[in-house]
TrEMBL record, chain A:
It comes from the Bacteria. Residues 4-236 form the ABC transporter domain. InterPro entries: AAA+_ATPase, ABC_transporter-like_ATP-bd, ABC_transporter-like_CS, Metal_Ion_Import_ABC, P-loop_NTPase. This is Metal ABC transporter ATP-binding protein. One of its GO terms (molecular function) is ATP binding. The keyword Electron transport does not apply. Belongs to the ABC transporter superfamily. Keywords: ATP-binding, Nucleotide-binding, Transport.
TrEMBL record, chain B:
SUPFAM superfamilies: ABC transporter involved in vitamin B12 uptake, BtuC. Keywords: Cell membrane, Membrane, Transmembrane, Transmembrane helix, Transport. It comes from Psychrobacillus vulpis. One of its GO terms (cellular component) is ATP-binding cassette (ABC) transporter complex. The keyword Cell membrane applies. It is a multi-pass membrane protein. InterPro entries: ABC_BtuC-like, ABC_TroCD. The chain crosses the membrane at residues 6-25, 32-50, 56-74, 86-108, 140-158, 170-189, 201-220, 227-246, 252-271. It is found in: Cell membrane. One of its GO terms (biological process) is response to zinc ion. This is Metal ABC transporter permease. Belongs to the ABC-3 integral membrane protein family.
Length: 249, 296
């Protein structure tokens, strides 16, 4: 079964075409990296898959079905700067928002929902921050809260937009351990990622993207220098040095 | 007795606007309140032209439609690439001007003067009564109670939905929340609140009541529910203290209430524990002192 299937997807903002004729088929149970330069359309791809863009053509199937927002198969971690962190609420409350899809309209979160939310916070090592205002968390802690919220969704397929931005090495290891754990449980996880150094360690599947799909498939087949050069438009002159030089980003 | 009705009306304005205003602040769309408070005039005039009556129901309906129209037009201009504040500016000035034009053209001889709409007169509230189920209360009190009830019901049913779609609309959409419908429902409530309140305190001061207490509450709240409670408290406090000060100094009641909102905001801004201005300055001075001691 395919976790994600995309057929002839194209997206335009106003006149400008951002994604051209994207075709993808990715089997269930993969930890997939979505890689490409700034402005390649990675966030746009995720938004289009999640049905959030009006100007698109093509078909998207998740677990062989068209996306229906009423079933809870999809979890989502937006880019961290997508929300206002001064909003008056605490960490546990944000994680609880991951339960809203299950709770349904009008009804209130139950004790069980709160328990699940607390467990998810614990999972990301943030249980002592449950009552902390989200504005008083560090960037990495905020990122973990977002991840905990996605875990609380108890979804089958996850989409995460740059969950590693602005987190320290320890947090990055925590997060990747959680993602690998999700994969071990048979979930499918899609992660927008920028660090080419770590990409091949983290992901067993890759989508290389720059307006069109450069390559999509198992990491060992797709994560090649030729493909990367193509996706990054020949801007990766330092690829060889980069492999030995940890400062490359 | 008259004093009681005026106080009650003021307090109801404080509570209702305080409640509604919270999400205006959280959604960073405070200026849309200003727009709606002016464009409801257009709705009321059109309602009057159609029904030839000044009854409260038609006013509420006309205002709700005008509020929705404002929200809709702002949305359209925004998705056409205009910035939100520019979109609001364009929409509200044109609808307001159209409202004023219609009044002078078609309703010149009726009691619908612009000054009353803008400034209101809370002191006259007790004499304009409605009988409902044999109960006689001022019209303003009835309308405010009705709108307060709508606001409370909306929050009882959709509290977590409006909270999530305010905090993280993209995520809300991804779990299937109808965020656009929430937006329009909420803006309808803002319009209804505006029209129910402006008959007594006037359109301009409605804006003060919608934004001031909620903005003050925002300074000192750690949760949305806490913010709602504080906002309503500040609204009522401003109304009551404003009334008595106006009586004491024999000045405009609505004006004094608005002034009190400003006073409360300043007090909280200055004296709020931990990160109020005074507290911060004090801490900074203490820190400097220890630094100097450490350095010497
Ligand atoms: N709302 C929008 N309106 C118009 N153009 C947009 C919009 N959002 C994105 N774009 C454009 O679409 C292109 C792809 O954007 P997208 O955010 O998908 O890139 P990305 O791959 O996620 O980049 P990054 O690595 O910087 O996050 C960019 O050229 C961007 O300028
Ligand atoms: Mg992006």
């Amino acid at each position: 079964m395919n976790a994600l299937q995309v057929k002839n997807l194209s997206v335009a903002y106003e006149e400008k075409v951002v994604l051209k004729n994207v075709n993808l088929a990715i089997p269930v149970g993969r930890l997939t990296g979505i890689i490409g330069p700034n402005g390649a359309g990675k966030s746009t791809l995720i938004k289009a898959i999640l049905n959030q863009l009006p100007n698109k053509s093509g078909a998207v199937h998740i677990l062989e079905r068209p996306l229906n927002s009423k079933d809870h198969t999809v979890g989502y971690v937006p880019q961290r700067n997508a929300v206002d962190w001064d909003f008056p609420t605490n960490a546990l409350d944000v994680v609880l928002m991951g339960r809203y899809g299950h709770i349904g309209m009008i009804k209130k979160p139950s004790t069980k929902d709160k328990q699940i939310a607390m467990d998810c916070l614990k999972n990301v090592g943030m249980e002592t921050f449950a009552d902390r205002s989200i504005g008083q968390l560090s960037g990495g802690q905020q990122q973990r809260v977002f991840l905990a919220r996605a875990l609380a969704q108890e979804a089958e397929v996850y989409f995460m937009d740059e969950p590693f931005v602005g987190v320290d090495a320890a947090t990055e290891r925590t997060i990747i351990a959680i993602l690998k754990d999700l994969k071990a449980k048979g979930k499918s996880v899609f992660v927008v990622h920028h660090d080419l150094q770590t990409a091949s360690d983290y992901f067993d599947w890759m989508i290389l993207l720059n307006q069109t799909i450069t390559a999509s498939g198992p990491t060992e087949l797709t994560f090649t220098e030729d493909n990367l050069q193509e996706a990054y438009g020949g801007k990766l002159f330092f690829m060889d040095q980069a492999k030995s030089n940890k400062t490359f980003n | 007795m008259n004093e009681f009705w005026v106080l009650l009306t003021g307090s109801l304005v404080g509570i209702t606007c305080g409640l509604t205003g919270v999400f205006l602040i959280l959604r960073k769309t405070a200026m849309i309140a200003d727009a709606i408070s002016h464009t409801v005039l257009f709705g009321i005039v059109v309602a009057f032209m159609i029904t030839q009556s000044l009854s409260g129901y038609w006013m509420l309906i006309g205002a709700a439609i005008a509020g929705l129209l404002t929200t809709f037009l702002v949305q359209v201009l925004q998705s056409g690439g205009l910035q939100e504040d520019a979109a609001i500016g364009v929409v509200f000035t044109s609808l307001f001007a159209l409202g004023v034009l219609f009044i002078t053209l078609f309703a010149g001889n009726v009691h619908l003067d612009v000054e009353h709409v803008l400034m209101g007169e809370i002191a006259f509230v007790p004499w304009d009564t409605w009988d409902v189920f044999g109960f006689s209360m001022p019209k303003a009190v009835w309308m405010l109670l009705f709108v307060l009830l709508l606001n409370v019901l909306f929050l009882v049913f959709f509290y977590k939905e409006i909270k999530l779609s305010t905090f993280d609309p993209v995520f809300a959409l991804s779990i299937g929340l109808p965020i656009l419908a929430m937006h329009y429902s909420y803006m309808t409530l803002v319009s209804l609140t505006t029209v129910a309140a402006f008959d007594s305190v006037g359109a301009v001061l409605v804006v003060a009541m919608l934004i001031g207490p909620a903005a003050t509450a925002y300074l000192m709240s750690k949760s949305v529910s806490g913010m709602i409670v504080w906002s309503m408290t500040f609204g009522v406090t401003a109304a009551i203290t404003g009334y008595y000060l106006a009586k004491l100094w024999n000045t405009s009641i609505a004006g004094m209430m608005a002034a009190m909102i400003g006073v409360i905001f300043m007090l909280v801004f200055l004296f709020k524990p931990h990160d109020g201005w005074i507290w911060k300055t004090f801490k900074r001075m203490k820190l400097q002192k220890t630094n100097i001691q450490a350095n010497s």
